[in-house]
Design a protein that fits this description.
The complex is a heterodimer of chains A (113) and B (113). Chain A is an all-beta fold and 113 residues long. Helix content of chain A is 0%, strand content 53%. In chain A, strands 2, 4, 5, 9, 10 and 11 form a six-stranded mixed sheet that branches. In chain B, strands 2, 4, 5, 6, 9, 10 and 11 form a seven-stranded mixed sheet that branches. In chain B, strands 1-3-8-7 form a four-stranded antiparallel sheet, with no helix packed on it. Chain B is globular, with a radius of gyration of 13 Å. In chain B, 37% of the residues are buried. The chains are: A mainly beta (113), B mainly beta (113).
């Protein structure tokens, strides 16, 4: 079993729809949760960074963490064609463990005009 | 521009060649990382440097040799690679080794022929 599971997609939505992405994980020690966006032939770009459980909102993006269920989500409201990319979740344990990010495989998102 | 610059962007090399990948970060960070991103696989952490000292080596074959001459520069020296080493090699940096928030470069697309 992979430590972090993420549906590879592709997830195809019409412009303006809400994009819903999620990851599940097995390591209960994870406390830091991140979402990265990666365009084709580019490096990952940090979108959202959250600590422990709860919600965080930034513009059209909302990240949710449910540690009891070992489940994290990213929602993109009013999706645009420019949101078409691969979205990677990443997580790490306590800071004392250093930056050992564990990534999901990524979900490819296509927003159609 | 992400603040982390990688060169070259693309590299094709034969199995007997020796080449080097370069990474430079302009963020004033103290920790730098090499990741490997293969098709249909999650990002894999290869090496971690903190204040120019290697703190992590995730069982990477010796044909990959990192070098960190100062906190702003990171190299990955390549020799006698295999075709299965073809991948996107990503450099990242974070404020400190214990900081989970990482910023990535654009990557070097390596093809071994």
């Amino acid at each position: 079993q992979k430590e972090v599971e993420q549906d590879p997609g592709p997830l195809s939505v019409p412009e303006g729809a809400i994009v819903s992405l999620n990851c599940t994980y097995s390591n209960s020690a994870f406390q830091y949760f991140m979402w990265y966006r990666q365009y084709s032939r580019k490096g990952p770009e940090l979108l959202m960074y959250t600590y422990s459980s709860g919600n965080k909102e930034d513009g059209r993006f909302t990240a949710q963490v449910d540690k009891s269920s070992k489940y994290i989500s990213l929602f993109i409201r009013d999706s645009q064609p420019s949101d078409s990319a691969t979205y990677l979740c990443a997580m790490s344990a306590a800071k004392a463990a250093g930056n050992k990010l564990t990534f999901g495989g990524g979900t490819r998102v296509l927003v159609k005009p | 521009e992400t603040g982390v610059t990688q060169t070259p962007r693309h590299l094709v090399m034969g199995m007997t060649n020796k080449k080097s990948l370069k990474c430079e970060q302009h963020l004033g960070h103290n920790a730098m990382y090499w990741y490997k991103q293969s098709a249909k696989k999650p990002l894999e952490l290869m090496f971690v440097y903190s204040l120019e000292e290697r703190v992590e080596n995730n069982s990477v074959p010796s044909r990959f040799s990192p070098e960190c001459p100062n906190s702003s520069h990171l190299f990955l020296h390549l020799h006698t690679l295999q075709p299965e080493d073809s991948a996107l090699y990503l450099c990242a940096s974070s404020q400190d080794f214990q900081d989970a928030e990482a910023f990535f470069g654009q990557g070097t697309r390596l093809t071994v022929v």
